[in-house]
Design goal:
By secondary structure, this protein is an alpha+beta fold. Helix content is 50%, strand content 17%. It has 11 helices and 7 strands. β1, α4 and β2 form a beta-alpha-beta unit. It is globular and about 65 Å long. The N and C termini lie far apart (69 Å). 14% of the residues are buried.
């Protein structure tokens, strides 16, 4: 049998079902972390990772999670069944409800559920979690936005998808280099608050993009924006 080319392997990975990614992630966590450090892990994910069976396996592995869920799911609450989409339809901007010990989905996994609609969000957040409060759930789930920006930076600016590393040791070293680069840039660059407003006409940008654009900006623009920030 002839060995597969890199493009064939990449195509095969792209066609894997979503459950395979979920289970692969869980296997990596189990094999990489003993129960003690695993208890300090919090898995934050979007709706693609929402599965009652997957939630059950996370609970069995003692992995805390904060995962957004789709509307079309059946819940059991106080010995009554509810469709989540109907509960979500009653939410208004500013509403926030934290339901505890909900039986979620076909597997009837016991977890907590946040139903909230932040004023700046276009739609409600429906989040399944093991965290103990609405405030804690919202605070940690907001981190997902920054994490996604970091992934975009790693893929585009650092071109990690194009790297030829195959061993865990080399991938870890490359990741460490990227983290040190972020840290060094954060120490060097102190752009004023108006800079984000000045440049985000192109859309929301990450810290890395804003910092690199600031370093490349003409001195007269940097001077003017610093003066604007100092004048209040």
């Amino acid at each position: 049998m002839e060995p597969k080319t890199q493009s064939q392997i990449y195509t095969q990975v792209l066609t894997l079902p979503l459950w395979a990614y979920r289970e692969g992630l869980l296997s990596v966590i189990r094999e990489s972390l003993s129960p003690s450090p695993r208890s300090r892990l919090l898995l934050i994910a979007d709706r693609g990772y929402a599965s009652s069976a997957f939630f059950g396996r996370l609970l069995k592995a003692q992995i805390a999670f904060c995962i957004r869920v789709p509307r079309k799911v059946l819940l059991s609450l106080a010995q009554q069944q509810h469709r989540l989409e109907f509960l979500a339809a009653e939410l208004n901007h500013g509403d926030c409800y934290f339901l505890t010990e909900v039986l979620y989905g076909p597997a009837k996994v016991k977890l907590h559920l946040l139903l909230g609609w932040e004023p700046e969000q276009p739609e409600p957040w429906l989040i399944a979690t093991t965290l103990s409060s609405a405030e804690e759930t919202k605070r940690y789930y907001r981190l997902r936005m920054g994490i996604e920006e970091m992934f975009k930076d790693l893929k585009h600016t650092f071109a990690l998808e194009s790297c030829q590393c195959r061993s865990t040791d080399r991938i870890t070293r490359l990741g460490l280099f990227a983290r040190i680069s972020f840290w060094a840039l954060a120490l060097r660059v102190r752009y004023p608050a108006p800079w984000a407003r000045y440049i985000t006409a192109r859309g929301t940008l990450s810290f890395l993009t804003l910092a690199l654009e600031w370093l490349d900006a003409p001195p007269r623009i940097r001077t003017a924006l610093r003066a604007e920030a100092e004048s209040g």
